[in-house]
Design a protein that fits this description.
The protein has four helices and 48 strands. The protein is mostly beta strands.
């Protein structure tokens, strides 16, 4: 979309939010006071869910509202701001009384433990604000406290994203131990999780979002990194883990917020978040974003916008329906960075562009629509989600190559690539809470059906319409040489159809207050049809994948859990992007990922958690050259990742919050593959990585943040020839609340102005880190 139209869109978005906010403020003056949505979960002393518990909200001894917990022990109530007493009752249990004081914002989820008859419980909760991430549903498909999940899970909330002015998935995972964001040719999100690289292991609200593009954060409630293979929940892929984005949903708490941002290198960004209930049954939310920014890299530019309206509809006491649609448009310069020289990043100026920036671009057009239906039938809960994604993406770039011995010339090549993909997924989860004598069960059964249709087309750049590479001066590599893009003999031109049909079952077993088990099994039928448009070849590969998962949780005391787990995932021979299927590769079995993990999770206090895990992750069935016949491929290659992770997340005091972690990783080839010999270290996996962010709220509306990111050396590629030096970066922030509704924020990145290199895509595409930069933000709540 042209710049003029995008600027018009940004102006229109601002006006819509302002007018809507002021209009509804007037309407609220004559209508009901805005309500907050109280959510919670009721558990017995063994932490088994209590279905059918009655929740009654009283205000000054007057009944305001009441509801029953569902099969997962969950409940929700819409309440106006004020002080309330909640009475919780269930057959066989003593009545619990909870005192709360609500604010005109969303509640943190409550967790209420009921005692057996003969006991009483009184809880006082005050100033319920912010976002709680002590429980997630993505790890087990049931709302489960993080300390009861036998898996390493890191959660970065929207408050952390806002405080650090994070701009991308790469910014988020800097604070997730065991995850490294890599270059991805600077045209997509790509991560290495526990030594396994992927551009497809991304999910949105638990549904696959696997096309290669840059995801924005404007509409997110949080980002979850689930580490270790877990095909039982997410299906194929996810060898090292997955990144799940949880989007904001329309709720019954009134909210209006605009944030204006500007900063170094021409950074300009506007975001808006607008949430209003029409009544106690229908709520609407709108998130929008527009950005037009430059870069410290010469002639590199970014322009994008996104809109995400959502609607929540309460169709009776038993049914809730949520509708959502996102449109994202992203246009930017494709920037492959700088080349290496003699085993290290070259000394080219970090702002130097290699190639022709006028012919270099990335365009992504993303439209995602979803419908979610939750229905309660007594103790049975049915959750159905349908997602339709339409992705259209193209990039064209110049690729730096090798530098000659006297560092006077550097090779350049060029190509473009277009992908069109349509995804359709439907997931149905049925959960039921039951007890067999003293043993509690949370039973899950589900199905997933999906269809993905892709078209891929690649052209090679011919300089002066003749050569596929050109040597240019290393000291002046920004060129305007004529380039014609057309198909080479091996360039892709194909059509791919992938279908999946899956069924799975899981039981979360509460043997006692101290011992819990998780056991699950998933069966996937994955069918891929590949048509080569160039020569008419058709290839087909169908796999039946059986993915088990087992875990045990032992709690010697309530806030502490010790766990062990075993899980398996598979990656079909077509790869995570269905990029190619040939007569040779269609015969190959899927790669297998097997994870063994032991860990501990300690809720030091209600708002502070400390976690640690050790793991061994084996990747087998990888491709290798047949030692007896170099023209053949065998599946004898293997890789092993071993490591230790520790993370700290939450509030040490009411004023001081922290987020950080440490990861030790050893990922290496254990049996020769096509790419590397036995013993080679896996690319872009630092042996040591450490991060820590501190946020402190002072009196008088002031606040400050200080953080550090450190990683050790790592190799740029699997051949272990080029080292990316380790580095340490220090960031800071200052906050000031001018009034209850207006706040300003300044974020300073790379405070010490260190030169460093963030990541790479091979030995000669290395991304320099940005120098010192500042971003200023103004937020207005209405």
């Amino acid at each position: 979309m042209p710049t003029k139209n995008l600027l018009s869109f940004a102006f229109t978005l601002t006006c819509i939010l302002l007018i809507a906010g002021m209009s509804l403020s007037v309407v609220r003056g004559s209508e009901a006071v805005p309500r907050s949505q109280l959510r919670g979960r009721v558990l017995d002393p063994n932490r088994a869910v209590i279905a059918g518990a009655k929740i009654t909200a009283l205000r000054k001894d007057t009944l305001v509202s009441s509801t029953l917990t569902n099969a997962n022990g969950e409940f929700s109530l819409a309440l106006e701001p004020g002080e309330y007493t909640l009475q919780i009752s269930a057959e066989g249990f003593a009545e619990s009384v909870v005192s709360i004081r609500s604010m005109p914002t969303s509640f943190e989820p409550l967790e209420i433990l009921m005692q057996l008859a003969g006991y009483n419980a009184i809880v006082t909760v005050t100033d319920i604000v912010g976002v709680d991430t002590s429980a997630v549903s993505s790890a087990t498909k049931t709302l489960t406290p993080l300390r009861d999940v036998p898996q390493s899970v890191s959660v970065v909330s929207r408050e952390v994203i806002k405080k650090q002015s994070m701009q991308s998935i790469a910014d988020v995972v800097r604070y997730v131990p065991g995850v490294t964001a890599i270059q991805g040719e600077n045209n997509r999100d790509q991560v290495v999780i526990r030594g396994n690289s992927s551009s497809a292991d991304f999910f949105v609200d638990g549904v696959r979002d696997d096309v290669q593009y840059y995801r924005d954060l404007y509409n997110l409630d949080r980002v979850e990194a689930l580490k270790g293979p877990n095909a039982m929940i997410f299906g194929r892929g996810g060898g090292g883990g997955v990144i799940n984005r949880v989007t904001k949903q329309a709720g019954f708490a009134s909210l209006g917020e605009l944030t204006f941002q500007g900063g170094s290198f021409g950074n300009r960004r506007l975001t808006g978040d607008f949430d209003r209930p029409f009544n106690d049954k229908i709520a609407f939310r709108f998130n929008g974003m527009y950005e037009n920014s430059g870069s410290f890299r010469d002639q590199v530019h970014l322009e994008r916008f996104g809109i995400n309206p959502t609607l929540t509809f309460i169709a009776g006491k038993e049914t809730q329906i949520r509708l959502a649609f996102e449109r994202l448009r992203d246009s930017r310069t494709a920037d492959r960075g700088i080349p290496s020289y003699r085993g290290r990043p070259s000394d080219a100026n970090i702002s130097t562009f290699f190639g022709n920036p006028d012919l270099t671009f990335v365009h992504a057009r993303v439209d995602i629509a979803s419908v979610v239906v939750d229905h309660q039938i007594e103790k049975l809960n049915i959750h159905n989600r349908t997602l339709l994604g339409d992705y259209n993406r193209m990039y064209q770039n110049f690729v730096p190559g090798s530098v000659n011995a006297d560092k006077t010339r550097v090779n350049l090549s060029a190509y473009n690539n277009a992908t069109r993909r349509r995804n359709l997924f439907n997931q149905t989860d049925i959960t039921y809470a039951a007890k067999t004598r003293s043993i509690g069960h949370t039973l899950l059964a589900g199905t997933e059906f999906g269809r993905q249709v892709s078209k891929n087309f690649r052209n090679t750049g011919f300089f002066n319409n003749s050569a596929t590479s050109i040597a240019v001066p290393f000291a002046d590599p920004t060129i305007n040489t004529s380039v014609i893009f057309r198909q080479n003999a091996t360039d892709a031109n194909n059509h791919v159809q992938a279908k999946v049909a899956a069924i799975y079952a899981q039981d979360q077993i509460e043997l006692s207050a101290k011992v819990q088990l998780v056991a699950g099994l998933r069966f996937d039928h994955f069918d891929l049809k590949f048509h080569n448009n160039r020569n008419g070849d058709n290839f087909n590969r169908a796999d039946n994948l059986v993915s088990p998962r087992a875990g045990i949780v032992f709690k010697p005391v309530l806030p502490l859990s010790l766990y062990g787990s075993y899980s398996v995932s598979y990656l079909p021979s077509s790869g995570d992007q269905f990029s190619a299927l040939t007569a040779s590769t269609q015969t190959l079995e899927p790669e297998k990922f097997t994870n063994y993990e032991f860990g501990a999770k300690w809720d030091v206090r209600q708002s502070l958690s400390l976690t640690a895990a050790v793991y061994r992750l084996d990747r087998t069935n990888t491709r290798a050259t047949d030692p007896n016949d170099p023209t053949k491929i065998v599946q004898t290659g293997s890789q092993r990742s071993t490591g230790f992770e520790a993370a700290l997340n939450g509030s040490i005091t009411r004023a001081w919050s922290v987020l950080g972690g440490y990861a030790y990783q050893d990922a290496r080839v254990t049996n020769a593959t096509i790419a590397a010999p036995k013993g080679a270290l896996v690319a872009q996996v630092p042996r040591h990585a450490f991060s820590l962010w501190n946020n402190y709220a002072f009196a008088g509306g002031w606040g400050a943040g200080l953080g550090m990111i450190h990683r050790s050396d790592m190799y740029a590629a699997i051949d272990d020839r080029v080292v990316l030096p380790g580095h340490m970066r220090v960031d800071s922030a200052v906050y000031y609340a001018i009034s209850e509704n207006v706040a300003v924020q300044a974020n300073l990145e790379n405070l010490l102005n260190k030169k460093y290199f963030t990541n790479a895509d091979g030995n000669d595409n290395i991304s320099p880190g940005p120098p010192r930069a500042v971003r200023l933000s103004l937020t207005w709540k209405f």
